Amino acid sequence: MKKQVFLLAVLLMISFVGKAQLIKDRTNGKVTMGFDLFTDVNKGKGYDKMNLRTINQGVNLYITYNMPMGESKHTVSFGIGVSCHNFYLKGAAITDPFSSPIALNDSIFIKKSKINVNYFDIPMELNFRIADKFKISFGGKIGFLLRSKSKVVGRINQYDDDNDIYNVKYRDLSGTESVVYSVFARVGYRCVNLYVGYQLTSVFKKDKGPEILPLSIGIGIRAY
Q: How far is residue 153's CA from residue 174's CA, in Å, rounded to a whole number?
């Protein structure tokens, strides 16, 4: 199953690059589409009972309008996009998502547990082209919360005598920040680039939940 999902992701990437390049060619390079696949590392103080697994996959999708800096090939870009972050918890889960502050429970049997947040992004970046094939980009973005969710698969009620496994999802978690700020950088060769991003604002408001400041590291594709 995991191999099938990976293959599907690769095929979508190839299709995306082709369409993005076509749009860029038709707009004379003024419009760029791209996406990043990354994993998150939490640089915040965390929370009692909160430990994240090693891989916490996420994705950015974006489209930008590029304005040249004078007569050079360097550009200033503004755009819109969406981003999705998944934080997989080890040995604990949110069992009361509407409490303040959010409480994590580690006294139940857990197979899978995660927090998911999605943002509508407004990015701005500076792009510097080197030798026509290399590009270095620096930027920042404002993210507006679209939805926050949690999911837990396990034996939710610790007092149950049966061994039933439940899949429980909650939406609109209490205490999440509605607006977050991030900085990012990309170093690319043709259509492939390395991506690093850091969210300056915690996913949860202060004292309302765990301090989650994701450092995102991954690979991206954009029309060259």
A: 20
